[in-house]
Amino acid sequence: MHGPASSGWLLVALCAAAGAYCLLRMRSSVEEQRRAAGGEALMGFGMAAMAVPAAVFTPPSWAWSAHAVVFGVAGLHALWTARASARHLHHLVGAGAMVYMAVTMATSPGHGHGGSGIPLLTGILLLYFTGYVLVTGVRLVPVPAVAVTGGSPGWGDRPELARVCRLSMGMAMVAMLLTM
To answer: What is the pTM of this model?
Structure first.
């Protein structure tokens, strides 16, 4: 993404930390958390890779196409799992946004960071993710206590941290879409 290098590095750190926490959540004893955590980890690390400042690294021309393919497959998986639960529709929108940004970057001059996407699609995605951030932020406030037998919950079983992870990735997506 183009823009100041300091904000790019903050996005890289935020997204990489969210991806790392999602990997930790994959060890959860709660099956639903394990299922969602893999896709969220992929999203976090993919966003971190996309946010590396252009002044530091300009990926080869094939990298954005590979990025689009990976998130296209993730989108198909989210579409398949959305049959059972509408909760996965957010993963579908997120994967679609990543494909859109990767294709935009692949078609930009020099195949570098940044580019100009379709303003209407960018605006729709911005509205969606802004709404998602606001709703997730409101839901973060009244997190109920988790009843755990046999001690305190592990790091992968903390619903408030999972929400913070999702909120962080939502805010990063808004920041990345603003640079389109």
So the answer is: 0.83
